[in-house]
Amino acid sequence: IVEMDATGNPIWSTDTSASPGQSATNASGNIKPMVRPVRAYLLDQSSILVADPGANRVAKLDTTGIEQRSITKFQLDPAIVPAGYQTGETLSLSGPRDALYYSSYVLLGQVAGSVSLGDGETVNNYEYWQHYLVADTGNKRLVEVVDRFYYSPLTGLIGQPVTIQNVPQ
């Protein structure tokens, strides 16, 4: 992945991504190669969304190659069956060729019945959602993955991720 200026000079490039945290070898992170990235979108001055079907993942990176989010599979809320989901269908991505990212502030009363309430305290019933709409080509489907965060409209602060009872983290 290469970002270039208007004259064609490279600003930065990467052929790997690094995920912080402990790895299987007790190192302080994991280096993941870009296998066959086919789409990359600049989200803001420092974030890029990459669809890499060769690695069966969608990754949100910063311009230093550090992963902010990597999606290879998703989890289902045990109390809610998503529209279009077939029982026994795989939860892993296969050859995702494109992705879209957007965020929203959600009033929980407007989505009642389509999401479970979180286990923590929700201030004024608002949450901040990060949406990833993935063209999961190998599985012939579109998948929307939503990361939910507590949000206070009073302070404008986005809090911790929403946790739901009986959903493995």
Distance from N terminus to C terminus (CA atoms, Å) equals: 30 Å
Quaternary arrangement of the chains shown? single chain
Mean pLDDT comes to 87
Shape, principal axes of CA atoms = globular
- Summarize the main sheet: 4 strands, antiparallel
Strand content: over 45%
The helix content is under 10%
Number of strands: 12
Strands ordered across the widest β-sheet: 5-6-7-8
**Global Rg:** 17 Å
Parts with pLDDT < 50 across at least 5 consecutive residues: none
Q: Structural class, judged by helices and strands?
A: mainly beta
List the secondary-structure elements in sequence, H or E.
Answer: EEEEEEEEEEEE
- How many helical stretches? 0
Question: Would you kindly provide a written description of the structure presented here, covering whatever features stand out?
Answer:
The structure is a single chain. This protein has 169 residues and is mainly beta. It contains no helices and twelve strands. It has strands spanning 2-4, 10-13, 16-20, 29-33, 39-44, 47-52, 57-62, 67-71, 96-107, 126-136, 141-152, 157-161.
